[in-house]
Design a protein that fits this description.
The chain is α+β, with helices and mostly antiparallel strands and about 120 residues long. It has one domain: HIT family, subunit A (2-Layer Sandwich). About 20% of the residues lie in helices and about 20% in strands. The chain contains two helices and five strands; from the N terminus they run H-E-E-E-H-E-E. It has a five-stranded antiparallel beta sheet with strand order 1-2-3-5-4, with helices on one face. The relative contact order is 0.22.
């Protein structure tokens, strides 16, 4: 299901251009326009789910599909030594686009801080 007002839904639909790195039936992934590391990819379910707090038994399969895609993208991006996956949930959690998404960050040794 698409939310007509959602930035990521518009990117998934191709209405807004992106640097796509991965796509399958359930997941779309593209490069972040403000990367925090050499590799910074946003991994989003094609189904609109607002945030982690809105994951239910009925839609939780999209989270599993995102993590399956993250593993594939990590390998394709050469991140054999590791990477970080971050999800921001809600305004206080720093979520700026209200569509469930995961930041795949790597390409250099990351410190113990979040980013």
């Amino acid at each position: 299901m698409r939310d007509e007002n959602c930035l990521f839904c518009k990117i998934i639909a191709g209405d807004i251009p992106s640097a796509k790195v991965y796509e399958d039936e359930d997941v779309f992934a593209f490069r972040d326009i403000n990367p925090q590391a050499p590799v910074h990819v946003l991994v989003v379910p094609k189904e609109h789910v607002c945030c982690a707090a809105c994951v239910t038994e009925e839609n939780s399969r999209v989270v599993a599909k995102c993590f399956e895609a993250i593993a594939k993208i990590g390998k394709a991006e050469g991140l054999e030594s590791g990477y970080r996956v971050i999800n921001n949930c809600g305004e206080d959690g720093g979520q700026s686009v209200m569509h469930l998404h995961f930041h795949l960050i790597g390409g250099r040794k990351l410190g113990e801080k979040i980013i």
